[in-house]
Amino acid sequence: MAEVSRRSALFGGVGLVGGALGGALAMRGAQAPSPDPGSAPGEGGGAPWAGVGQAVETFYGANQGGIATVPQARLALVAFDLLAGASRSTLVRIMRIWTDDAARLTRGAPGLTDTEPELATVPARLTVTVGYGPGVFEAAGLQARRPEWLAPLPPFSVDRLEEGWCGGDLVLQICADDEVTVAHAVRVLVKEVRELAQVRWVQRGFRRGMGTQALGTTMRNLMGQVDGTVQPDVAGVDVGLLWAGPGPRSGTGWLEGGTSLVVRRIRLELDTWDELDRPAREQVVGRRLADGAPLTGTAEHDDPDLEAVNTLGFPVIDVAAHIRRSRSEKPGERFLRRGYNYDEPPGAGVPGSSGLVFVTFQADPVAQLVPIQQRLAEMDLLNTWTTPIGSAVFAVPPGCQEGEYLGHGLFG
Amino acid sequence: MAEVSRRSALFGGVGLVGGALGGALAMRGAQAPSPDPGSAPGEGGGAPWAGVGQAVETFYGANQGGIATVPQARLALVAFDLLAGASRSTLVRIMRIWTDDAARLTRGAPGLTDTEPELATVPARLTVTVGYGPGVFEAAGLQARRPEWLAPLPPFSVDRLEEGWCGGDLVLQICADDEVTVAHAVRVLVKEVRELAQVRWVQRGFRRGMGTQALGTTMRNLMGQVDGTVQPDVAGVDVGLLWAGPGPRSGTGWLEGGTSLVVRRIRLELDTWDELDRPAREQVVGRRLADGAPLTGTAEHDDPDLEAVNTLGFPVIDVAAHIRRSRSEKPGERFLRRGYNYDEPPGAGVPGSSGLVFVTFQADPVAQLVPIQQRLAEMDLLNTWTTPIGSAVFAVPPGCQEGEYLGHGLFG
């Protein structure tokens, strides 16, 4: 038993492990893994590390998962085009299939017609989030219920959009702490609708996750920056910034408890970024690289002092620094960021491409996100090293209860 | 404290966690994470989950890491072509750079000229393994020391090789339990030699890893099969199957303590595979899908009874089943498998591509691996659903001590 205690110390204290996980998952009332190792299913069952592999995010509820959920380590975003002739009944069929399979897969059970059921046994906090592009409302003859804001973002001067990374009639956001889990879920959900919809694009992403750093640590992007410090308190006072209300801007009520998903694919120009020294990089962002603290502060979550000047009278935080330009004085111009890194390998003579799958959720992207993107497009030192190459907007329906399907309030 | 105990139970018992990790890492004398959370560096420091993020595989030693190392969750294989005019001194320069940076990165420290040092703080069992293709010996004028077996594998009838996935003068195998760690190490090591060598191909792979299943669990491929059950005991009686000896076949001694690395990229035809029912799939492989047990046995590691017949007198394990065809009666025809899944996303109208980065290590690939590949090419039920599309062979030098560089016994 002395051995056990020593191991506990080496591994950082299991009380904290359980505490951090329990607290984080409580956001969606997630289930802790079974206390009886023998009762856990499949290859992960009873494993010493089953705490990560067997953790479950509850599927049913007022909101969909994968939004307020503490970000998992892996992301796959799959956008689809409906095939010609798709109708409201096509969409109901897709929604019934996806809802049923997502409910199964997220609890570590195989899809209804899963041909590789053994790959479904490690849920690893899997979430499946469904969203609708403008084409859904057209196909279903439901234009009157389309949220006013559901359209491509307006063009920004910094955009260099590639059609292959834009748009889509439907989207699935699939996240988990294990890549095998994500790959399996993508395959099941794509395969089940292949007679009804065709994949338009897939974006995969990663961040450090369960097992390698403390939950709640702000991610770093591949520029090395702490990225995503400022977030609205969507579980508290800012709840209205995330979830749509019943008003007409959201399509006459069906979207209440839903939200919008904006995906921007942002290429990072790492080779030229790497030519900057550290003080110059810190000027660009207005935060210290080491810990993400504002240049006027000492800790990551300190508020920046945008009025502070140095001994020469110049602003400590540059007038065009990203930290300054990305914030508005209007409290409504904020949104939940849930981005991931991407890193496409270099090939023969072709350099690699790295960047951010910049994912945001907000009740109304036109009111909350677009003004900030416009400010940044107009002036942001970071623009020299960031290039938006993809853009898409989706309406994300609320969650559902057992027996219902996602989007029943729209299509039903 | 009652809370702590309950959490311990929920999370499977931390004694086991430490025990499994400690045992596995002992294979290369790995260091457990610091018992003092405050002393761990960077963003992973002191995190409750730091056990995975801060685990270190020792770089220096008689053999390189990433070979006998318990497989990490993520793989990147990067093959390079030397630029025209490369010489022995070019190779020494590359080896000095890679050795120095690999020693740093694997212990969670930044590379020598690392421009994103904050991304280096989570080693997550990072290993960097260097290998040489035939071109190295040509460029260095050292053909006399080239191992006899170092050449492309002979063509097999099942091959449908694509040039873009074949060959290479140099290779880096980079593995860790965290994708940010892998992406950062790839970038540092590629960037440091970009004036000297150009990337030829990159293959990324994944398997379930630390955090989602017990260490030592045999992986499943994306067909859902338990894949890689039979392995030589390379830490025991079969040590000679892995590490090269001093004989002339290995290039007159410099490779002693090294090995060979063979990479086969094998596409899986999942769409047609999914049309088979489970009994048919089990016949193809000769193992049960549920647990990987031979059709004549009850547990994964049971020896198959190749003589067993059913009540009709037919063999229980088909004469062309993969399990039968992949084993030889000659004990020398075995090798260490260390493969990973790959899964390339589908695009507009283009189906996705999934498969295996089939990675093997063996003292002599011509003696140990080629006969088995030949047997499988001649007859293996699995061939209908597997297509080799890439192939490469590398000589992997032994490890080195501090102050030395990898390959010093060859180039020095």
UniProtKB/TrEMBL annotation, chains A, B:
Family membership noted in the UniProt record: Belongs to the DyP-type peroxidase family.
UniProt keyword annotations, A-Z: Heme, Iron, Metal-binding, Oxidoreductase, Peroxidase, Signal
SUPFAM superfamilies, sorted: Dimeric alpha+beta barrel
Sequence ranges assigned to domain Dyp-type peroxidase C-terminal in this UniProt record: 219-400
Statement: the UniProt record of this protein carries the keyword Disulfide bond: no
One term under GO cellular component: cytosol
Cofactor: heme b
Residue ranges, compositional bias (Low complexity): 28-40
Residue ranges annotated for the Dyp-type peroxidase N-terminal domain, each copy included: 64-207
Protein name: Dye decolorizing peroxidase
Superkingdom per UniProt: Bacteria
Region of interest (Disordered), residue spans: 28-48
Entry's Gene Ontology molecular function annotations: heme binding; metal ion binding; peroxidase activity
